[in-house]
Amino acid sequence: xxxxxxxxxxxxLASSNELADERNDFFQYTIKINKVLAKFGFxxxxxxxxxxxxALPDKRSQDEYNKxxxxxxxxxxxxxxxxxxxxxxxxxxxxxxxxxxxxxxxxVVYFKDVKDGDMPKDExxxxxxxxxxxxxxxxxxKHSEKFYSSYRGIEGVESDFLLFFIGKNLPAAKLSIQDSKxxxxxxxxxxxxxxxxxxxxxxxxxxxxxxxxxxxDLLSLKTSNPKSSSIPLLEKELSEKKxxxxxxxxxxxxxxxxxxxxxTADPDDKRVAxxxxxxxxxxxxxxxxxxxxxxxxxxxxxxxxxxxxxKALADKAKEKxxxxxxTIVLRIQYLxxxxxxNWVSECKELYEQAVLHARNCYNVSELAELLFKQARFLxxxxxxxxSQCVYEEVLEKYQKLAAASPEAYLPNVAYTLGNLGLLHQxxxxxxxxxxxxxxxxxxxxxxxxxSPEAYLPDVAQTLNNLGALHYDTDKHGDAExxxxxxxxxxxxxxxxSPEAYLPDVATTLNNLGALHYDTGKHGDAExxxxxxxxxxxxxxxASPEAYLPDVAxxxxxxxFFRMEQGKLIEAExxxxxxxxxxxxxxxxxxxxxxxxxxKAKNLLExxxxxxxxxx
Length: 615
Description:
CATH topology of the domain at 7-112 and 114-151: Rossmann fold
CATH architecture of the domain at 7-112 and 114-151: 3-Layer(aba) Sandwich
Radius of gyration: 29 Å
Helix content: over 70%
Strand order of the largest sheet: 2-1-3-4-5
Distance between the termini: 79 Å
Shape: globular
Number of helices: 24
Number of strands: 8
Strand content: 5-15%
Structural class: alpha/beta
């Protein structure tokens, strides 16, 4: 079997002996992530004196380690209570290499938090700590205080490194956040709360505490008074806070990657550091004022002139240009969280400027990723015509990339087609949507052959989407087949992960029930509606806020079905229960449920009218 050639990325890890455990932990972490990165053709090699070639002389030769350092791609320096002689020497060499045209392209410095109990007690230790503070202040004066970061545990350094590496080397990788965990290709590789941007962020810490306190209050109330009328209100508040926290964590992850790329390419830009400080304090308007739109536009425009005049920019100048583009993206990310007045129209303009400049210096994959974000933003904000044009360009680029590297880029082709298909379905272009969903299905079936855990859920979702489209366009035979296969897959997935996939099983059962009712297969419809209702009732016991609407909808469908069968007493009971549940949702300030309350009332009145006629 042919072995895939790996691209080696060398990281030099410098620190004094007091942080030997942290160095070893980072080394073990890279072993873990290398198992995942190998799929993408990369391997991280950690260089430190513990891991040096055993062929080196028995006595430590700093000159030998310095040679190793100069041959690395990145240097990470850790300080705690002292700045050792060799650590300072390695930092100086790394700095000169980074900013003097050497191989090192990234240099990051971390200072571990010193707790009261960790403070040196002896005179020698105190003097060493004073020297360290001078080193720290020296960086703050020369490069702004954000040239370095503080950390409480090595996990923060590891998560920062992972986000930088993925953003720089694997922009097409499937990186996501699940319950605060940083996931790559389905593998947990860190926690968002450990990132320096989250660790130092007051609004994030406040929101995290609110979620934690609500969970404790809800558990206490359910234990002491399980029938309390306050439980649904607490569950609603907790659900909303968790969603807010999830969105905040996603935004922080994207910001961390953006800021790392900017400061790595242009560490002397103090504006980004100052904006980050204000953002972490929750001063969103001040952060946006610092990232002044006219100034960052002018910076990017000036870099564009430099680019055109030079014809062939030096790598360092090109990196700085890229940093200015990333600064425009950072303002978009800040606006998307702050949501100040006219933020949508400004974000649209910012995306146009970012893409305009990105076309000059981004590679195809990076440009496609930025365009995809622009298209998704336009789609989410109902700019359908503009969104379609951008998606079509994204699709063309990913298809070309997938032709050369199918394993890396076929998923991107599928996800782009998926968004384009939903856009066409929403705008009534059913033929285009059908073609796109069918192509997605072919791609995900192929991917699921080698990675079923990662892509079988996508196969099922695509089948369900196709079934819904064919149902709406009266292709009932195709819809029945697609719903059936989707149900089979989702049942198997639910056997392993019921919490994740039982809601999908119920959705497909409900879809099949509606289809079978319309096509006269009333026995099948009755069975499917009944099973969907049973699943949704169980789900609603644990999470009423999330699943009560589904219970109400299924009850409504069953009530209508029973009425058509002439089983009016049972139909009345089901309609009454559906109405009560919709009224409960509407009372919880869900104005969107008012229309369903009226529909349930009308159905109940119709059933009772038929009963009166029968009597």
